[in-house]
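Form 12-C: Joint structure prediction
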Amino acid sequence: MPIKKLVDGLNKRKYRSRRQQQSANDPGLNRTNSPNGSLLDSQPDVQDTSQANSDSLTGDLVKDLHTVQSIFEESSDLITREFKIGATESIKAFIVMLNGLIDVKAVNADLIKPLMFLEHDINKNNVLAVIKGNALSVAMVKEGHSFAEVTDSILSGDTVLFIEDSEIALIASLRGGERRSVEESKTESIVRGPREGFVENLSTNMALLRRKMKNPALKFSELQIGSQTKTTVCVAYLKGIANEKVVEEIKNRLKRIDTDSILESGYIEAFIEDGPLSLFPTVGNAEKPDIVSAKLLEGRVAILVDGTPFVLTVPYLFIEAFQNAEDYYTRPYYATFIRWLRWLAFFLTTLTPALYVAITTFHQEFLPPALLVSIAAAEEGTPFPAMVEALLMQTIYEILREAGLRLPRPVGQAVSIVGVLVIGDAAISSGLVGAPMVVVTALTAISSFVVPSLTDVSTIVRFILILLAGFSGLYGVVLGFIAFMTHQISLRSLGVPYMSPLAPSTFSDLKDVVIRAPLWAMLTRPRVIGGGNPNRRKPNLRPTPPDEQKGES
Amino acid sequence: MLEEGRITYKQLILLIFLSRIIVTINYLPALNEPPLNQDVWLSELLFFPLQLLLALPVYILWKRFPNQTIIQYSQIIAGKLGKLAGVLIIWYFLHSTAISLAQFSLFLTSAVMSETPILFFALTLVLVCAYATRKGLEVISRLSELFAPLIIITFISVTFLLAKDMNLKTLTPILEKGVLPVFNGSLIYSARSVEVLGLAMLLPYLNNRQKVKRVFILSFGLISLFFVLITIPVLTVFGVTEARRLTFPDYSVIQLVNVGDFLERIESVHMAIWILGTFIKVTFLYYLTVLGLSQLLNLKDYRPLILPTGTILIPLSLLIAPSLVELEAFTSYKIFVWYSFFFILLIPSLLVLTAIIRKKG
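Section 2 - Result
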């Protein structure tokens, strides 16, 4: 009964803002509110009815049906179906469900049909037991005692069976409806490795994780957040591997959230992250079960949110942006090389325009003579100082990128053609910007896609550094770098320093940061995550060729 | 407790190391001090044992008061006089911060950006340092942990890149003037180490008490080796006579790096390193100043002191060194060594003696 708990929890914490909002919206209602006020405060009609019936079922079908209908007043997707149970002796009953959330075929075949043609002696005393035992061919059936519970189930897509003279309703889980099927992830494409990505449906996502880890130690603990949306949020972790304190802390932070809606995991992220005002993300997200499984196996905790394929993982460290699932599926040398390349690309994308501006404006003497001459020749006729040029080009690039992302695909091509012609060619030939600046912008743009999870961070950092470079040269850039480093080092994600294992350095963890050691050499889980079970695999797993003498057989 | 953070012995070593070596990558005062000849590098090697010896009082004091800083135990040992010692030590920290700040901004105005006023550099650096100081000891030590490898790797690679220009014959004859000037030289270098008092302030925050000896030995050993690493290229490329004429010897030597006509003009890297390193040094001393001050005044939090101290620092640094000439006059060994010995040797030694006599700790 998660909703009950939530209601109690919500009532205990009355935030000032919430109270203000409430009283502003409907002051009259607020005064009459009773213990479960916050659950229903947005639905005044529901409030009154459930109050009158003291929330529990009566067993009087006419009354109950009326109550349900008044709860779902003006909800045209509500379906109620009255019928009689039993082929011979009949007991009145009705079922309630929401159109589109149920599997109609299953409701017909597994619920209505066996009940209607039930050939069993039933009376008012044994009806519940008989139905559960002999009639309902549905795996998930539970009993509902209150309207709050029943309403919650109906909204989640369950079908509820009300039986005459029974104060208990049966809730059959026959969920269905239109859903996206499991497909290849769009944001995290790979060459080698599993392709399936998470979908919007929570239970499918849980199943995808469970399929990766056939282990009862994988725990899913659910709760509902959002007074309006009642979104199911699920904390997943591996018991014995995840840090219990972190799990508890996450649960506490989730329970603390008192908001009207959770539409995406980004909402959750905003409420639980450690550096809420920081530029840098301290909560990670992933769209693929293999990535989330790997993070769980490292001792992290995942938060699955119903309605989004993006799963949050915490603690999230800076270095995770430079790790990729495919690193672990390919051979170590190339994976290490690519990892270094990502660091290089990150520094290129944040620093290149700033360094270019600083050096061409303030420190021409730092350039080798040949390079200096060619840059000077290219920049000679341009009307703007380097900083303005850089800001201009970066802004145009960001506009193009955003336009290309949002526009329908056929129009997107037009955008890129305009972009290529306008930025690439016309701007230079008309003498508005220098050719080196276009090279720098292009390099910056390409590099930013190498570390996708830091793209938004690097864009902002880049703009700040360009400004610093334009005003105070290399000095400003280095000082800006120091300030960002200080900030990043002071950040924490669920108690784990954000920049670890670089600073504070943990030597044994560098095996998966500076290099990607072969799997048989990575014997321990990351120490900084601090889980209970540091050992991953047995030592001496390094494959060796069979002994020559023994190998003859 | 005022500072909740704990640091590892590696972080402390790197902090002390960075703070001590960073000035030498530009100023290298050793060239104009005894022994005044090519034996400078021998003095720098001898620096290691001498510095250990000079830091002995601080070590003894730590043994007696493992959980307190020098500001706190000086009051236990000597009461009112101890408080005066605390004031003097804090003044020394503040003064050292101002000197580092002056060295920092004077290098930038004279070598790199000659049209920018000194005040701009002093102001912006102090702002960033204040931000880092506010974040506390853990963040400062982690920053040094992050920057130290960058700096060490850069200077080792510079030495390799300069190898073809080096003439090792300039290092001979060895011990031309005998042993005494070499010894004097190392005494002078060790007198410049405000870091000895830094250790007296930070040892209580070490997370592992077993590693204190290692902190002393490794940090001073590393410093000594790095001095040699900086000095050898300067000496062997320029020769001692020419090197002594240069204002920024190491900066000048890095300007000579040229590998295959494409890897050249890497003094921008040198400048970046200089900013990183001096940032660590100023932040470190700045932090020691405010921490010491708040311990002296029994405050619960040192953060309110950061900005007032910063506003004192900037005019102070402009006051003590309006130009390079005045800075060098003050920091030359004839004056500064005696000034410095008073704080890093005399005060701790007197404290040790008093502690032994009055049986404290």
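Section 3 - Comments
Chain B has one domain: 9-351. The longest helix of chain B spans residues 70-112.
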